[in-house]
Amino acid sequence: MKVVRTRGECAQARAELGLGTTVGFVPTMGYLHEGHLSLVRRAKTECAAAVASIFVNPTQFGPTEDLSTYPRDLDGDLAVLEEAGCDVAWLPEVADIYPPGFSTFVDVEGVTTVLEGARRPGHFRGVATVVAILLNVVRPTRAYFGQKDAQQTVVLRRMIEDLALGVDMVVAPTVREPDGLAMSSRNSYLDPAQRAAAVVLHRALQATRTAYAGGERDADRLRTAMTEVIAGEPLAEPDYVSVADPRDLTELTVVDPAVGALTSLAVRIGRTRLIDNELLF
Length: 281
Ligand code: AMP
Prior knowledge:
Elements: E1 2-4, H1 7-17, E2 23-28, H2 34-46, E3 49-54, H3 74-83, E4 88-90, H4 94-97, H5 115-119, H6 123-138, E5 142-146, H7 150-162, E6 168-172, H8 192-197, H9 200-213, H10 219-231, E7 236-244, E8 261-269, E9 272-280
Parallel strand pairs: 1-4, 2-3, 2-5, 3-4, 5-6
Antiparallel strand pairs: 7-8, 8-9
Helix pairs in contact: 6-7, 9-10
This protein binds adenosine monophosphate (AMP).
Residues 28-29, 35-36, 38-39, 145-146, 148-149, 172, 174-175, 182-185 line the site of adenosine monophosphate (AMP).
C-alpha cells in the first residue's frame, strides 16, 4: 500500500494506477472500524484498485463540536487499510486540502436544510467541499459511502449529479455491533454505562420497523414509536426523530409503500451525539 500526503503526491499515485484502471475511493475521517473497512473491501472487490483517504475535515465541524477531540489512530488505520487490500492511502494535512488563499466552497441547497443540516449549520457545506476536492484529486470510477450517514449520501448524490463529477456513487449498508449499535468512531467516547444505553437508537428504529411491518403508515405514530423507546432510556436525550421521504428528506405525514421512508434519529448520550437510520420500504 502506498501512503501519500499532498494533493500532488495523491494525483501522482492515481496516475501510476493507470487512467484506464477502475478505482474505488473511500473517503474517511479515520479511527477506522468494520464499517469503514466494509467499504474498502467492497471497493477492492468491485474495482481494480482501492484508494482511501483519512482526513479529519475541520470545515464540517461546528465551533462547539468535537474537532479537537476527534479520535485518531493513524498507525492502526494504516495497518487495517493494508489488510483490507487498500492500494493507496491518502493522509493529507489541513494545509494540503485548504492551502492559504483557499476560498471556494460547495453549497448544496434544499436537502441540507433539514435533519443534520438544521442542527449542524455549515456541516454539509464542509462535507460537500472536501468531498469535491477529494474526488477531483483521486478521480475515482466509484466512490463508496455508508448508509449510516444517510443524509450525507443524499447531499453528495445531488452534488455529484449537479456538478457532473462523473463518479458512480455506491452506498453500502450500515455495519453494526452484535447488539445493534451502528459502528462509529464516536462510540469510543462512551463509558460502559453510556455504551449500554446507546443501543437505544437501534431499538427505537426496530420499534418503528415493527410498527410499519404491522401496517402502521401514519408518520406521526411511527415517530412516536421511536420517541417512546428513547424516553425509556434515562441516559438518552433525543435531538430529533424523523420519518422522511428518502428522495428529498421532507417529513412525511403518511408513508406510501411505493416510495418508502427514511426513519432517522439523533440522540445525545452524555456529551456524545449519535445518529442512526433505517430505510423502510
Ligand atoms: P467517517 O469516517 O465517519 O467520515 O465515515 C467515512 C465513511 O464510512 C462514510 O461514508 C460513512 O457513512 C461510512 N461509515 C461510517 N460508519 C459506518 C458503518 N457503521 N457502516 C457502514 N459505513 C459506515
